[in-house]
Each structure stands twice: as C-alpha cells, then as structure tokens.
Amino acid sequence: MDATEFRRRGKEMVDLIADYLENIEQRTVYPDVEPGYLRSLIPEEAPEEPDTYEDVVKDIERVIMPGAASPACTELETVMMDWLGKMLKLPEDFIAGTHGQGGGVIQGTASEATLVALLAARCRAVRMILASDPQRPETGITSKLVAYSSDQAHCSVERAGMIAGVRMKKIPTEQSDKYAVQGETLRRMIQEDKAAGLIPFYFCATLGTTPSCAFDHITELGPICNAEKIWMHIDAAYAGSSFICPEFRPLLNGIEFADSFNFNAHKWLLVNFDCSTMWVKKRSDLIGHWQIPLGRRFRSLKMWFVFRMYGLKGLQDYIRKHVELAKEFESLVRADQRFEISADVVLGLVCFRLKGSNEVNETLLKRINNGRKIHLVPCLLSGQFVLRFALCARTTESRHIREAWQLITQLAEEVMQELPH
C-alpha cells in the first residue's frame, strides 16, 4: 500500500467509523451470538496470498460486529493465535483449536510474558511440593525457589525475578559456544543448587539474545528441564518472527520441551505495538495469570488485518529481505580489513567493530550517532565494545545499507587518523 492508497483508505475508514457512530442506535445493545460463533466464520489458517482490502473491510461487519466487543475480542484473539501458531508450525499442544490443553494469549511486551510465565511456574512449583508435603509452610518453599537465565538474557528477565520475589541466577556463556547456554552448564548449576537445599523451578531460554542474536541450545536444555520438573519458558522476542520461514524454523527445534513460548509480533512481523504473542502448553497452569492488567484491548484485529493484507508468503518475503540486507552489510564489513565481525550473522543483526581498543569503537559510535543519519546501539561481548547494525524498518532497501556503510567507513577513517602514531 503506497502513500496515495493509504490516504484513500484512511478516508474510507473515517467514513466507516462515522457511519457506525451515526447509526449506532439501530444496533442491538447486547450481542445476539453464542460463544464460539466466530471460529466457523473465518478460515482455520492464515491465507498464503494477500486478501483484498475490500474483503477485509467487509468482514468487519460480517465477522466482528455481531459479537462486538465481546465475545468477538476474545474469540478472534484465540483464532489469530492459532493462525500464527500454525504459521510457526508449533506442536499441537500449543494450539487452542485442537484437543490440546494449550493455547495463546496476546501480552503487551515480552517482559510481561516472562513475568507471567514465572508467576505461573512459581505457583505450579509450590502446588507440587505441597501435594507431597501438605504440612510444609509455603513461605519455606518460596524462599528456596531459584530460577535461571542466560547471562545474555534481557534485563527484563532479572527484573521479573525481583517482582516475583525469587532469586534469579545467571548462567555464564562463552564466545566459543557462540554465547549460547549449554546443557551441561545448566545441569551442573541445578545439581549444585539442589545440594545446597534450593528448589530449581524455572528456566528462561533465549532464542535471539539482545546483544548478539545468540540461540540457547533448547534441544539440550529442554529434556533437562522436563526431567527436573523445571518450567522452561522461551523468550524469542526479536527472532521469533523469522520462524515462519521454513529455512529458519530449525532455530525453534526443541520447542516441544517448553512450557511456554513468546515473541513480539510488533518487532518484526509488521504488527503495530503492542502485540507480544505468548503460547502455553497447559492453559490450566496459566489461567490465573493470563496477563497483568484486567482490561484488554482488541489487539487481535491488528493481527487479522496484517495476516490477510500480506498473506503468509508476503510476511516470509519481508523477513527474508531483511536477512539478505544484513548479509549484504556483513559482506561489506568483511571486505574491509579495518573491521571485524563479532558474532555469527544469523538473522537481521550484524555485530561488528573496528579492530582495536574499546575506546576507539566508543568514539566511532559517538560520531555515528551524533551525525543523526543512522543510529546504532552497542553491546559488550567478552569484554569487547561492539557496534550492532539492526535491520528494522519496513522500507529499508539495499541503497540504505550502502549509504550507511559509506558513512561508517568515512567516520572510521576520521577516527583512525586522530589516533597517535
């Protein structure tokens, strides 16, 4: 949709809203539909090819208005989470429309999803212990609970532990392991903590860490968590969108061992903020913690519109284009002997730096960001100050990559000329 069509469609939408308000007294006060009415009105899966805008707008009246705002709000969310779950090829356990016990819910952010999963895991752990030892005081259990995450995990994971009142231990990672949590490291920490009288109950695995887009080895970690009755939550806030592409789906292998899984559709799947999609294998574990707020917005409408206007193939093409552009930038970096790549380029993030001191790279970053033509956010990897080039914008093209690299190399030349010889 170009700017001209966007203006035209925007005016049409204003007319639609105005007509609704003008004729609102002709509508019933309470919806005259039975619960479950909506699922039979729309397909079971997202379309492969885009639908027309006209068909999408017609379906607002046909599908949504009969149940507005309830039960349409809840039912469309359930179906959209199933659509997306099928696009990701999640195990049947996570799909609400099957005979499984799981399903999806839209959170505001991945931070909320991590906390919600942690609270549910804490309740489950306490419940299981009390089932075998009813006389044990609950405070004596919660004070010994211990959760785990990677030292590369987002700071929101540690914050979730603070809010939930449980200790959160960081699992060390190494550059030689591509900054991924190893199964043996987790196993060793669990055994040490159990020997010290603690109760391991939750592990937050990360697929696509914030610093370098590293992927924890969930095929190793999952069986360990399952054997120890530890809730495994998977945070794939950024990378999760890419799993709709068959070539990137192997990055999610091991999902069958997880209790919950989350990623931000508002990060890389063209759905406006906020829309953080979360699935759980067993709804009954989460039912008291579906979300933090009691009120709900009609966020699934955004998903419905995007999935239909792009189609699965359109969304896959969008992801692939960003990955190709990241690879183009990586090749430019590798061709310049003054620079080095600091982590594997798997998706749309390139971690790179000037060969030299941290101070030189800090100076380069300041020059880049002060120029206000492009903006980079740094990270520390194994003590090295690293620049991060992230492909984020819908309209980014190859020429933008070349222009950005030209600017970076120009400023790098200036910085290096200022170094003492």
From TrEMBL:
Keyword check for Chaperone: no
Keyword list, A-Z: Catecholamine biosynthesis, Decarboxylase, Lyase, Pyridoxal phosphate
GO biological process: amino acid metabolic process; carboxylic acid metabolic process; catecholamine biosynthetic process; serotonin biosynthetic process
Pathway connected to this protein: Catecholamine biosynthesis; dopamine biosynthesis; dopamine from L-tyrosine: step 2/2
CDD domains registered for this protein in UniProt: DOPA_deC_like
EC number in record: 4.1.1.28
Cofactor: pyridoxal 5'-phosphate
Pfam families per UniProt: Pyridoxal_deC
MF-aspect GO terms: aromatic-L-amino-acid decarboxylase activity; pyridoxal phosphate binding
A single GO cellular-component term on record: cytoplasm
Gene3D superfamilies found in the cross-reference section: Aspartate Aminotransferase, domain 1, Type I PLP-dependent aspartate aminotransferase-like (Major domain)
Primary enzyme class: lyase
InterPro entries: Aromatic_deC, PyrdxlP-dep_de-COase, PyrdxlP-dep_Trfase, PyrdxlP-dep_Trfase_major, PyrdxlP-dep_Trfase_small, Pyridoxal-P_BS
N6-(pyridoxal phosphate)lysine modification, residue list: K267
Matches recorded under PANTHER family: AROMATIC-L-AMINO-ACID DECARBOXYLASE (PTHR11999:SF167), GROUP II PYRIDOXAL-5-PHOSPHATE DECARBOXYLASE (PTHR11999)
Membership in a protein family: Belongs to the group II decarboxylase family.
Complexes and interactors: Homodimer.
Protein known as: Aromatic-L-amino-acid decarboxylase
